[in-house]
Specification:
homodimer; 219 residues; alpha+beta; Pnp Oxidase, Chain A; ten-stranded antiparallel beta sheet; 6 helices; 11 strands; 20% helix; Pyridox_Oxase-rel (chains A, B); Split_barrel_FMN-bd (chains A, B); Nitroimidazol reductase NimA, pyridoxamine 5'-phosphate oxidase superfamily (chains A, B)
């Protein structure tokens, strides 16, 4: 049984446009985050927004983000300023009978907050494990873990899921009554991400088997 | 022949991390933008960044973004403040022999600038056409175009591709020499987006044929 508390929107995280699409189930928020590979991290640098794709991982109600210690956005985010982190899945193109009602089906999680730089060695390893497993399930145990130099080169941030919102659109187009008789196809073209054939590193020995964790992976 | 001028990075749009991944070909920038369905628009609201998924379309070196006239981010972006608009494609998961060298193959376009609210009726129609065609090729001509009320409810912004950067990662992992002999599979698991079976609107007549522009669409 999932006993996660519901999302409690603040003024900033309240979904205003299309409020009927807002969800308040924390389990659903987790599922949307867990299904993603990258989010888009927004920070303010010299008064301007900067939005960059960023890998992440989740442990409970904490998101871990990482990047090079040299990255300006990560340095800014680590300095205790507000950030926004958004994960979006596009699930389908909604074809309507009017241009105006064309839309997308999607799931979108938006997290506002102040990120905390993770310095505790134990939490750093747990955070990097979450990040690695989000990107490549099974890889943390199967590959060489970070050494001291690699850890020193990696900035790890924690962002709590306290101020988060979730917006989901599903279903057919919302055409106007007046357009329903138009001889135009309307409906949804679903989209999904699939994996292709694994491409071995050229430096692998010939015929090195692809492990099941990679071969059978869905995304 | 493509005579587009190369990208001329400013301080803000110069790729600093992983500079070997920076591209300066404007044609390649256009291709990355044209291949996307949503970008992530960043604006600063009350001192905090807000990042939301946003549909777009391109005409030449102008991106058009739209949304409800009631959306706070769109209103902010229309007020002449700096925005950032980022389009990312994740092309593969890069499995390395060490956790540290795990990565993603991706294409990412980042556009900085001040958006302009489009008020000229002719440009508004061209911009909405570009947006509709990006989402649903062929739909602008095939469906009812916006009437006066719908146009009044739609905020349309133009963002010039003057200050843009493009970053691309391709290829196998960049493992350390010391790890190459490890008995660990390394390589790339390619990812791509595919379309599923069209799902007709329940209000369509039975057996309404799916037009080729939708049935045969790739993304």
């Amino acid at each position: 049984m999932d006993t996660a508390p519901p999302l409690s929107p603040t003024a900033r995280s309240t979904v205003r446009r299309g409020a009927e699409r807002a969800r308040t189930d924390r389990t659903e928020l987790h599922a949307v985050l867990d299904a993603g590979l990258v989010g888009h991290l927004g920070v303010v640098l010299d008064g301007s927004p900067v939005v960059l794709p960023t890998g992440y991982g989740r442990r409970g109600d904490t998101l871990y983000l990482h990047g090079s210690t040299g990255a300006a956005t990560l340095r800014a985010a680590a300095a205790g300023v507000p950030v926004c982190f958004t994960v979006t899945h596009v699930d389908g193109v909604v074809y309507a009978r009017s241009a105006f009602h064309h839309s997308m089906n999607y799931r979108c999680a938006v997290v506002h907050g102040v990120a905390r730089r993770v310095t505790d060695p134990g939490e750093r390893l747990l955070g990097l494990e979450a990040l690695t497993e989000q990107l490549a399930p099974g890889s943390w145990a199967a590959t060489r873990q970070p050494d001291r130099r690699e850890l020193a080169a990696t900035a790890l941030l924690a962002l709590d899921l306290t101020e988060a919102s979730l917006k989901v659109r599903t279903g057919p187009p919302g055409d106007d009554e007046r357009d329903l008789a138009a001889p135009v196809w309307a409906g949804v073209l679903p989209l999904r991400t699939v994996v292709g054939e694994p491409e071995p590193c050229p430096l692998l020995p010939d015929g090195a088997p692809v492990p099941a964790r990679i071969r059978d992976r869905g995304v």
